[in-house]
Amino acid sequence: ILFRGQDVTHEGADVRARAGMFLSFQTPEEIPGVTLEAFLRTAQSAVTGKDVKVLSFRRELSRQMEALGMDPAYADRYLNVGFSGGEKKKAEILQLLMLKPKLALLDETDSGLDVDAVKTVADGVRAYHNRDNALIIITHNAKILEGLTVDYVHVLDDRKIVRTGDGRLVGEIIEEGFRALKEEAGK
């Protein structure tokens, strides 16, 4: 796996993170004893290799939490412990916004979320994505892609790409579902 000219095939998560890669999980882990703020501050320091200035960090954390509609008290809670599914996903988007990676891979970030939480997560993704970074979203529900600028869509079935298109394919999927695409691919 080459990323920005660096072979990261056999590298650990720490090396990949410092290279600018980010991965969100379908089911984020709970980490008792480590607050969300401490986790983010430590991660930011590890990724950048620089000491994090506490006051500016807290201002940015507060600003990003407000943008995601997160209660500021979550910064002092243990990472994902007792968080609802939507709160865990918001915490991951908060990590994305705070760490500002060059490549983000979001694995079913919309899984199990209600309509409002999907919108909040999509807003966070929109706030992150710009021309200097890349984003890969793995999803079974194209709803999260509505309102996002999508360059490419790849539809996989049984580990094979059965259809590739641009952002317009999102509309087709929402309108007709995946079954119509599978039937079309089978012809």
Please give a structural write-up.
This protein is α/β, with parallel strands linked by helices and 187 residues long. It is 43% helix and 19% strand. The protein contains six helices and nine strands, in the order E-E-H-E-E-H-H-E-H-E-H-E-E-E-H. The chain has helices at 13-19, 36-48, 54-67, 85-99, 115-128, 168-185, and strands at residues 2-3, 6-7, 21-24, 31-35, 78-79, 103-107, 134-138, 153-157, 160-165. The strands form four sheets. A three-stranded parallel beta sheet has the order 3-6-7. It has a two-stranded antiparallel sheet with strand order 1-2. Strands 4-5 form a two-stranded antiparallel ribbon. The mean pLDDT is 90.
Mean pLDDT: 90
Q: What's the story with the biggest beta sheet?
A: 3 strands, parallel
Q: Calculate Rg over CA atoms.
A: 18 Å
Tell me the strand order in the biggest sheet. 3-6-7
Low-confidence stretches: none
Defining key terms:
single chain; 187 residues; alpha/beta; three-stranded parallel β-sheet; two-stranded antiparallel sheet; 6 helices; 43% helix; 19% strand
Secondary structure layout plus pairing:
Layout: E1 2-3, E2 6-7, H1 13-19, E3 21-24, E4 31-35, H2 36-48, H3 54-67, E5 78-79, H4 85-99, E6 103-107, H5 115-128, E7 134-138, E8 153-157, E9 160-165, H6 168-185
Parallel strand pairs: 3-6, 6-7
Antiparallel strand pairs: 1-2, 4-5, 8-9
